[in-house]
Amino acid sequence: MKEKVVLAYSGGLDTTAIIPWLKENYDCEVICCCIDVGQKEELDGLEERAKACGASKLYIKNVVDEYVENYIMPTVQADAVFEYKYLLGTATARPLIAKVLVDVARQEGATAICHGATGKGNDQIRFELGIKALAPELKIIAAWRDPKWTMDSRESEIEYCRAHGINLPFSADNSYSRDRNIWHISHEGLELEDPSCAPNYDHLLVLSNSPEKAPEEDVHLSIDWEKGVPVALNGEKMSQREILEKLNEIGGQHGIGIIDIVENRVVGMKSRGVYETPGGTILMEAHQQLEELILDRETLKYKRLVSVEFAELVYAAKWFSPLREALTAFVDKTQEYVTGTTNFRLYKGNIIKEGTTSPYSLYDEDIASFKTGDLYDHHDAEGFITLYGLSTKVRAMKLNNKK
Amino acid sequence: MKEKVVLAYSGGLDTTAIIPWLKENYDCEVICCCIDVGQKEELDGLEERAKACGASKLYIKNVVDEYVENYIMPTVQADAVFEYKYLLGTATARPLIAKVLVDVARQEGATAICHGATGKGNDQIRFELGIKALAPELKIIAAWRDPKWTMDSRESEIEYCRAHGINLPFSADNSYSRDRNIWHISHEGLELEDPSCAPNYDHLLVLSNSPEKAPEEDVHLSIDWEKGVPVALNGEKMSQREILEKLNEIGGQHGIGIIDIVENRVVGMKSRGVYETPGGTILMEAHQQLEELILDRETLKYKRLVSVEFAELVYAAKWFSPLREALTAFVDKTQEYVTGTTNFRLYKGNIIKEGTTSPYSLYDEDIASFKTGDLYDHHDAEGFITLYGLSTKVRAMKLNNKK
Amino acid sequence: MKEKVVLAYSGGLDTTAIIPWLKENYDCEVICCCIDVGQKEELDGLEERAKACGASKLYIKNVVDEYVENYIMPTVQADAVFEYKYLLGTATARPLIAKVLVDVARQEGATAICHGATGKGNDQIRFELGIKALAPELKIIAAWRDPKWTMDSRESEIEYCRAHGINLPFSADNSYSRDRNIWHISHEGLELEDPSCAPNYDHLLVLSNSPEKAPEEDVHLSIDWEKGVPVALNGEKMSQREILEKLNEIGGQHGIGIIDIVENRVVGMKSRGVYETPGGTILMEAHQQLEELILDRETLKYKRLVSVEFAELVYAAKWFSPLREALTAFVDKTQEYVTGTTNFRLYKGNIIKEGTTSPYSLYDEDIASFKTGDLYDHHDAEGFITLYGLSTKVRAMKLNNKK
Amino acid sequence: MKEKVVLAYSGGLDTTAIIPWLKENYDCEVICCCIDVGQKEELDGLEERAKACGASKLYIKNVVDEYVENYIMPTVQADAVFEYKYLLGTATARPLIAKVLVDVARQEGATAICHGATGKGNDQIRFELGIKALAPELKIIAAWRDPKWTMDSRESEIEYCRAHGINLPFSADNSYSRDRNIWHISHEGLELEDPSCAPNYDHLLVLSNSPEKAPEEDVHLSIDWEKGVPVALNGEKMSQREILEKLNEIGGQHGIGIIDIVENRVVGMKSRGVYETPGGTILMEAHQQLEELILDRETLKYKRLVSVEFAELVYAAKWFSPLREALTAFVDKTQEYVTGTTNFRLYKGNIIKEGTTSPYSLYDEDIASFKTGDLYDHHDAEGFITLYGLSTKVRAMKLNNKK
C-alpha cells in the first residue's frame, strides 16, 4: 500500500499542481485538506477539482469558530501588535491550519504533510513549526523548496498540469499576493514592492472602503465584554465569530483598519504589505478602551511588555511553544475583571470613544475630582513626594558638588 | 534683607493669589517667573499685573525652542507613548519649567521655589522632582498643600486678593481644567469626570476640528528627517519648532490627534482626560513610518520595550534621572540612520502613508520580491527551518509520549 | 463596648509597650496576635506576658507550612532575586502576616490593626499594603509613626511600661536589628551601617558557620522535584517545610548562603544588611540546575525578565496585587515539566553540581555530541546561517558605502 | 594570479588539514592567520609549520589588550551573564577574531575567509555573522560544512595531510573539546556529554584548583574602578589586561569561578559544558559590589533587564549589531559614576565582600540609620503609604464586594 501525504489544499493553481507532482515524485496517495478559516474562497466544486487532479480524498474543515475563539481572542486579550501596527492575521491562522493538517494526517495514518508556501516567506515556518510541535514524527514536504520541484512560473505550472492530464481553467494571474481569513486580508506585490510608492487603494482594497469613500454618516456601536472577550454587539448577544463578522462589515464600510507597513520577516528580510483588518481593529481598540478602566498602572505597563513579546513569538511561528502558553497564562489572569461595555462610533476611518462602563472600574470620581476626601488628603502628597523623590534628592546632593 | 522666593507664575487667579499669600506667610520677596513653553497665553500686561500684586520682579522666559529640541524630540525619537495613547505633552514640559525656575532662583539667590499645582495631580511631583534633581538645596513651597493655605475656591481666592488690595478682573471660571503648550492641550473636568460620558467635542476642542468638521479635501505632506528629527516640511528647511507649529495648524485643521483616555496618575488614582496633539501625532507617526525602513527587527523590538519604560519614567516625573538619561543614550544610538523622507496625507482624522524613502533603507526589493537571487536561495530556508525548529521538534519528541 | 484593635505582637519590648499605649490613646480593647513564620522565638509564657500588659487576648498562629508552600515556593519557582542577591526572606513573610492579622481582625470584629514597624523601613509598607489589599475597610495604626507616640528609645519604652504597671525584664539591647523566619535571618545596624566596613561575621552569624568554620568534609545531597517544588531530600519524601528545615541545618553547617548587600529600600534610601539563607540558597540553586535541563531557550530568557519583575514587586510590598498574581500564573505554566532530580554537594560555602536527571529533559545526547544524525545535518547550518545572518549582511551592504 | 583565502589558523590538526584542502578544492593561495586572544597556545614554530603545509603566509596577531578593553570590559560593565551563569568567554572572543580576519583579508586583497568551526556549534555563527557585518562582500568557506570536505575523523585528517606531503606529529586526541582565552577556558565532551554525571574535576581543570585543593589561607584583595572598569589591584595601577591576568592567577589558585551548566545553543540544541573563569568571576562580582553603592533602584532594575538582552545577543552572534551597540550606549551612561574601591577576600571558592567605598556613593548613613533627620521625617511615610497604596485600596474596595 502506498504511503499517504496530506496536502494543504486551496484549490488554486499552486496547490493543484502539487497533486500530480507529489504522486510522481513521492509515489504516494494524496489526501487534500482545505481548511476554512474564513477566507471566503469558492469551495463549491472543490471536491471534483481535487479528485480530477488525482487526489484520493478531499477534506474540507470549517474551523472558523475555533480560529476566532482559540487563536484570535487570546491575541486580542494580549493586545498583541507586531511592529507597531500588524494585527497578526496570517500569523494566528497558520498554526491552526497546521493543527488541522496534523489531525487529518493522524486520522488517515499519513506519514507526511505537504504545503505550497514560498521559500521566502514566514508561512512555511509557521506551518512547519506547528507540525513539528504537534507531530514531530511526521515528514514535511515543502513543495516549492523541494529539489525535485522544477516549476518556476504560473505558465510552467499550467503546462505541468496539462502534461498530467489536468485541464482546469486557471487564469494568468498578476494581481497582488493575498492571504485572507475572517480576521484580515493581506496584500503584497505589484506597486507595494517599492516602499516609496503609495498603495493604489482603488485597486487594492477588498474588505473596506477607503476613508474617503466611507459614508458621511457615522455609526454608533457598543460592545459588551466578559473577561476580555466580546459577548454582545449593540446589546445583542452573539458568538465571537458573529460579532467579528458584523464588525468586519460595518468597519469595512467605514474605512476602519487599513494599514500599510514595511515589516521584518522571520527569514531576515523586510517586506511591504497592506492589511485590511476592519473588525479586528475595532475589537483591539475597544478592548484597550475597557482595560483602561480596569487595569491598575503596574499591570497595564507590564502587559504592554508582554504584548510585544507575544506578538513577536506569534509572528515568528512560535504559537505552539511553552513561552507563548506561559504568556497566555499571564494574560488570562489579567482579564479576570475585563468586563463591561465600550461605546464608540465609527466615522471615515476613525474610532471615536463615547464612554465606557464596568462593574469593576477602578475609576473613582470622588478621588479623581478636585475635592479632598476620606481616601486621600492633599497633604498626604507632601509625605509621598518627600519619599518618592528622596533618592533623587540624595543623589543630587551627593553628586552635584562632585561633577 | 528678606529671603527671595521664585514663584512659577501664570498670571491666572491661582498663582496671583499666591503672591500676597507668600509675602504674608513667609515674609519674603516674591520673584515671579512666567515660562513660555508655547501655551499661547496673553503675556501682555503680565508685568504690571505681577507688580500690582506685590511681586518684586517678573521674569518672562521663552523656552519654546529648547522645549521642542531637548524635551519633545527625544520623546519622539523614543516613540514614547504612555498607556497606549498619551503623548506626554504635560509630562515633558514640567521638567523644563522646573529647570528654568531653578536657573532664576540661582541667578536671584533665592532660597525657595513656590508652585501652585494641585495636591492630587502629577504636576506637583514633576515640578518638585525636577527641583530636587537640579537644586536639592532649594526649599519647595507647594502653596495648595501648605497648611497655611486656606483658600478653597475661586471665590475665596478673589476675596483674599481684594483683602490684600488686589483688584483685578478675574472671571468666575467653570470650564475644563487645561494645560497647553506647543505640543498639546489637555482637558479635564466637567463631563469628562464621568468616564461613561462621551466628550462634548463641540465645546471642548481648542486646537482642532473634529474629523467631521475637517475639510473634505485631503492634504499631502512630506517630512524630511535627519537622525530621527524633522528638518524640513514639504521640502522646505525649517527649525523643529517651525515644523511643529506648521503641523499643529494643518493637523488641527484635519482633525488629527484627538484622544480620550482614562489614565493612571502617579498618585495612585485613575483620571480621565482629552488631549489634542495634532502636530505631535503626525510627527510620531511619521517617525515610526521612517523607522520601519531603517531599524532591523531586533532593534525595533527592543526599542518598543524601551519606549514603554521611557514613557513611564517621564510620566512619573523622572525626566532628570539617570535611567531616563541612559534610555536616551540607547535611543540616540538607534537614530543614527533614521534619515529620509516620509510622505503621507491627512484626511479627516486619518494619517495615510504615501511612500517612504531613505538612503539607509534596509528594504531590498530584489530579496523581498518572489525571485531567487544571490543573497538568498529558497533552499536555504530548508536548513534554516530545521535548526530554527529543532528545539521545538526535540521538545515534542521528548514530551509527547510522557504527557 | 470598646472597639477592638488587633496588634501584631512579638513579645519584645517595642510591641509590648504598644499595648498600654493603644489603650491609653485609642481607648480600645487590644487583641495581640503573634504569628509564627519560623522565627524560633521563645513563645513560652507569651500569653501571660501579653495579658500582664493589658491585652484582652493573645492569638498564636503557626503558619509556617502556609508560608513555605504559598509564599516561599512561588518565589523559588520564579527564581526571584532582588538586586542581584537578596532572596526576599522578609518581603515574602510580611504579606502572610498581614493576611493573618486581617483574618483575626475579622474573626474578632476589630476595627483596626496596629503594627510597630519603623517609619524608615519597607515592612510598614508591606504590612499596610497587605491590609489595604485584603481589608480596605480596616483602620491601620502605625504606632511608631503616630503623632501620639512619644517614646524614642528603649529606655523611654521601659519607662513607659513601668509607669503603666508593666514590670517585665527587658534587657538593654544594642545588638543588630534582625528579622528571622524559616527562610532566612537578616541583620542590620552596628558596623553594617558603614558600607566600607567588613561585617563582623564571628559576632553576627546566627544560622550558619562561616565558610572557614565549615567542616572539612563535604556532604552530598539530592533533591527530587515535581513541577518546580521539592518533594524529597536524599530520596526521602518530606513536606516542603521539612526539606527546608533540613537544608537550613545542613546548609548552615557548610557555610552556604551568607550575603552582604547594600540595597535600595522602597522608601528611597539605600541600606546595608547581611542575610543568612542557607536552605533557601540551596533550593534556588538546585531549582535553576533543574530548569537548565527542562526550559527551552526562549522560555528561560523571558523567565529571567519575569524574575526581576517578580522580585521587585514582592520587595516593594505588592504581593497581593494583580500583577504579582499574573506573573505567578506565567511562572506556574513554566513549571509544568520542572520535575526531576538534582544532585550536588556542599563544601565550605560552595554548592557544586553533581549531575541532574529528568524525564522531561530536552538535552539529547545524540544531537549534542559531535556526530551527524537524523535530526540535524551539519549542512543544515549552511542555510540557517544564511537566513539568520541575512539582515546583518544586507545592512552591511547598504550602509558600508554610506558611512 | 590565484585568489587569496584567509584561514583562521590555530596550528592544530583541524586547521592544518584545511590548508592543502583549500588549495586542492579552491585553487587558491592560503594566508594563515593566528589570532592571539590569550589562549596560551604554543606559537613557537607556527610559521614553519604553516609554510610546511603550503600556506603562502602566516600572520600572528596579538589582540589580547583589544580583547580585554573593547570586548570583555563592555560585557563586565553590562553585568552580562547568559542563562544564569555563563560569562560569555567564547562568545566575546569570536567577533574580535572575525574582525582581525577581515582586516587581514582586506590588507591582502583576499576574496574569502575560511574557518574550521564545527557545524553544530555557536562559533560558526559568530565567525560568519561577524564577517557578514564587517565585510559582506567576502565569501565565507566553512570547511567542515563544505560538501567538498570528506574527512570525518582525526585519523582521516592525518591521512589526508600525509597524502599531501605533510608529515607533522599530531597525537591521537581524545580529550575534552576546549576553548581558551584570557577570560576563560571551556570544556565539553567525554563524561560531560551525560548531564547526569558529575564532572571529573581532577581530570578536567586547567586554570583552577577545585575549592578543596585551594589554600587554607584566604587572600585579601582590593580593586579600584573608574567608570566601571578596573584601574588598580591592591592599590597598584595596572592595565586592564594585567589586572585580569593577576586575578586569573590568584582566583584560579583559590578555586573561584568554576561552573557546570547545560546551555541552549543558537542552533537549537542543549549542550553541557564546564567553564573556568577565575579572574572574570571576581571582576563581575566586584563590579556589582560597587554598583550597589552607586546605582539608584530604577537604574539597577532596568540594567538587569538590559543585561539579559546583552548576554542573549552576544551569545547569539550579534556582537556587531545595532542593538548591541545601542545597549552598550545605555550601559556606558550608567557607568558614569561607577568609580570607587571594592574590598573582598577569596577563600576556597568564595568571594567574600569586605567593604566598598565610592566618592559617588548614594548610601547616606544619616538617612539609613534609625534616627529621624532633615531629609526624611518618619511621618512622611504616612503620606507616602497612603498614596503608594491608594490604587491597592481602591481596587480592594471596588472588587471585594463583587467577587
From TrEMBL, chains A, B, C, D:
What is the protein's quaternary organization? Homotetramer.
Give me the gene this protein comes from: argG
Query: Per the record's keyword annotation, is Phosphoprotein included, yes or no?
Result: no
Q: What is this protein called?
A: Argininosuccinate synthase
Residues noted as binding ATP in the record, renumbered to the chain: 8-16, 116
What is the enzyme's main class? ligase
Keywords tagged on the record: Amino-acid biosynthesis, Arginine biosynthesis, ATP-binding, Cytoplasm, Ligase, Nucleotide-binding
Q: Show the GO MF annotations.
A: argininosuccinate synthase activity
